[in-house]
Write a structure and sequence with these properties.
By secondary structure, the chain is of the alpha+beta class. It contains 14 helices and 39 strands. Helix 3 runs antiparallel to helix 14.
Length: 713
């Protein structure tokens, strides 16, 4: 089973979080609130307060009366739900103990069904699945609201698993032990009560866990910083502390690595900031700092070599330099002997306009993917006896996005997904011993793509930087500016935006005559760490200039025009939307602001906000505070501006960014007499909803909104 080492709480925070920016030409008459409490809408930050929830319900009713009463809404919702519940979707495989596991949602399992089948059976078209955990039945039996947040299973047996169960989709989870051999929760097994927490198995009878062991024992970001060892049968109160970070850290978590030869590494990962990490080896001699650069990430362990991704240049003790964006290996025998004087070996270094994206280990191979000018490639790497590495291309379809779905630590098999804007997603099995690739499943076409075309173009940003973007449009479109077009981007946290097949986008928008564009602006990882770093903190205006430049380029090429150009983005992308809403309102006919950050003077005090200071900067630093004040969407709303009608939405269960930003933004617009639409989904965490039905309703509201605003019938 493929392992992601960034910790559940931090990986989740980065998957849907991103940019901020520095506005130019901010009008001095802008209405500004401060972070010291002079904010008339602070009461909306009390997420579950009855007064705040009454306000939410009233706003939801107003927006429903507009969007859900639109004659297009019902048909769009039915289409979205049918797509979401289709039985011929590709079940995403996870390999455990030589079998395939999958979490499935449909009309009969709105919360989800965790199930399994044999490896060979999964490769057939008529799969017979065996149920393991029915979350709907479990919720009913326990009078709870459980949703799936993953499983961690002990190596090498992969049968003792800790299941993370979330109340309504929150990041906070309850961890409970499940035995794959019996198909039941373990009577008297490990249970970790609800919280933002992380764990790692040391062995079948021992957990390493970071959590709120005592009340208030959390960082300012709301994450744990104390790691303890918990033996089977021990009460939580008797767990042994093995590492203590600091409340000023973002968070601290345990990490266990094991390779197919039985080598094991126990480690503490201490996030000093969102991007800077200290790694500490655990062993008989006590904790020992591992001399990795602060901006690096661990991929896995293979042949007793630690695989490390570099996000900054690394000059080693010997004076050798390894470039940012490279992948290196470290011999753990040498590392244990001299953890402060590591001698890395190069596995991969990106060429210009290329970028490493992901890697995962199998029994004795390393899978690696990269972007070549935002197009996916895959490689197989293997360690040799001299300490070096070989590499060969994995032949997969070209000009698409390629991602690793899962790998097996006990064989050399790996699953990949291949997808593109007009290429339905397909699941491939690679046998790295036989050097073969097998198409396992392909999603049937969900919309008519025969009349559509995809182009990759470039815009030129304000400082001369070339910014690539993709545009999907009808082959015979008239480039007279009349086409309704949705432009999307993220622009932060080194997250790359790549081509993908969206049945909902295709059916609810493209097939109806709309066009779509995806911008690869700075702040992302499309061209490696430098592309991200160019937009950090007070340099974020580059991100916003990039996005505006793409919008202007689409207009100049005749793809669309301001009345027909809509934009959307979520989380950090929601912040991007809020900034563009303020800075360039004349460019957009619609602005969809999803689960956003918007009050950048108070974001550090809301949910996990302070963990993102490394990305956005802090109000505690005068220069950074001035920057944040200049771009904060909430603080720069103006009564005399000519804004397009925005759709602003979030979820009540979002305990990462929080619904507070969206609520306050809408309330302030109301106070200024500005038109807006606001909606808050009552469940779902930092997403569009917890169930397929909720997600379909959210999609229908969005495409109804765009259809109304951009004049698509």
């Amino acid at each position: 089973m493929r392992r992601n080492f960034g910790y559940a709480w931090l990986a989740g925070a980065s998957l849907y979080l991103a940019a901020a920016a520095m506005a130019t030409g901010t009008n001095a008459s802008a209405t500004t609130t401060t972070s010291n409490g002079n904010d008339p809408f602070l009461w909306l930050e009390q997420v579950n307060d009855p007064r705040a929830m009454d306000w939410v319900k009233a706003e939801n009713a107003k927006t429903s009366a507009v969007l859900e009463q639109d004659p297009r809404y019902s048909a769009l919702r039915e289409s979205a739900l049918a797509l979401a519940q289709a039985n011929d979707r590709i079940p995403e495989p996870a390999v455990l103990g030589g079998e395939i596991y999958n979490l499935w949602q449909d009309e009969h399992h709105s919360h989800g069904l965790w199930r399994h089948t044999g490896f060979a059976d999964f490769l057939r078209t008529d799969v017979t699945w065996q149920p393991l955990v029915d979350l709907d039945a479990l919720s009913a039996a326990e009078h709870a609201n459980w949703f799936w947040h993953g499983a961690q299973c002990a190596e090498p047996g992969e049968h003792n698993c800790m299941l993370a169960l979330s109340d309504g989709g929150e990041d906070a989870v309850t961890e409970r032990e499940f035995d794959l051999r019996t198909g039941h929760f373990v009577d008297g097994g490990f249970v970790l009560p609800k919280g933002k927490q992380d764990l790692a198995w040391q062995d079948d009878d021992t957990l390493l866990s970071s959590r709120e062991w005592k009340p208030g024992e959390l960082t300012s970001s709301g994450y744990p910083y104390v790691v303890k060892r918990l033996r089977r049968g021990q009460p939580l109160a008797e767990a042994t502390e093995i590492f203590r970070g600091d409340p000023a850290d973002v968070g601290v978590g345990p990490l266990t690595l094991r390779d197919s030869a039985g080598n094991q590494v126990l480690m503490i990962v201490r996030f000093r900031t969102f991007f800077e990490t200290n790694y500490v080896l655990l062993g008989s001699g006590g904790p020992k700092p591992l001399g990795l650069p602060g901006k690096s990430g661990i991929v896995g362990l293979l042949a007793n070599r630690l695989i490390v991704e570099l996000r900054e240049d690394w000059r080693t003790a010997s004076g050798k330099v390894f470039g940012s964006g490279s992948l290196v290996s470290i011999d753990m025998a040498q590392a244990r002997a001299a953890p402060g004087k590591l001698r890395p070996t190069l596995i991969y270094a990106p060429e210009p306009r290329h970028a490493f994206t992901a890697a995962a280990v199998t029994r004795d191979k390393l899978l690696l993917t990269e972007l070549d000018n935002v197009r996916g490639r895959a490689f197989v790497c293997a360690p040799d006896r001299t300490g070096g590495w070989s590499r060969r291309v994995l032949p997969l379809p070209d000009n698409v996005s390629v991602s690793i779905v899962d790998t097996d630590l006990h064989s050399n098999r790996a699953f990949f997904e291949v997808t593109g804007f007009l290429t339905p997603a397909s699941l491939w099995l690679a046998d790295l011993d036989a050097n073969t690739q097998q198409l396992v499943r392909a999603l049937p076409p969900r919309f008519d793509a025969s009349r559509l075309a995809v182009e990759q173009l470039e815009a030129v940003s304000k400082d001369g930087t070339r910014v690539p973007y993709f545009v999907v449009h009808a082959k015979d479109m008239h480039r007279d500016g009349s086409t309704p077009l949705i432009l999307e981007a993220y622009g932060g946290f080194q997250i790359s935006e790549t081509p993908y097949y969206s049945a909902t986008l295709g059916k609810l928008w493209l097939e109806r005559g709309g066009a779509y564009a995806l911008a690869n602006i700075r702040g992302g990882g499309e061209f490696g760490p430098a592309w991200h770093d160019a937009g950090l903190k007070t340099h974020r205006q580059r991100i916003y200039d990039d996005f505006a430049a793409v919008g202007e380029d689409l207009i100049a090429r005749g793809f669309t025009s301001p009345p027909h150009l809509g934009i959307r983005g979520g989380s950090n992308g929601g912040l991007l939307m809020g900034v563009e809403f303020n800075q360039r309102p004349e460019l957009w006919g619609a602005v969809d602001i999803e689960v956003p950050l918007l009050d950048m003077l108070r974001y550090e005090q809301i949910d996990a906000g302070s963990s993102w200071v490394g990305e956005y900067g802090s109000v505690k630093i005068p220069e950074e505070r001035a920057f944040l004040a200049s771009i904060s969407p909430y603080n720069n709303l103006r009564a005399d501006a000519h804004y397009p009608l925005p759709l602003v939405w979030s979820t009540s269960k979002d305990d990462r960014v929080g619904p507070q930003h969206a609520r306050k933004f809408a309330a302030k617009m109301a106070s200024l007499g500005l038109p807006y639409l606001f909606y808050e989904v009552l469940e779902g965490g930092h997403s569009a909803g917890a169930t397929l039905d909720e997600e379909a309703a959210t999609s229908a509201r969005e495409y109804t909104y765009f259809s109304r605003q951009l004049k698509l019938p």
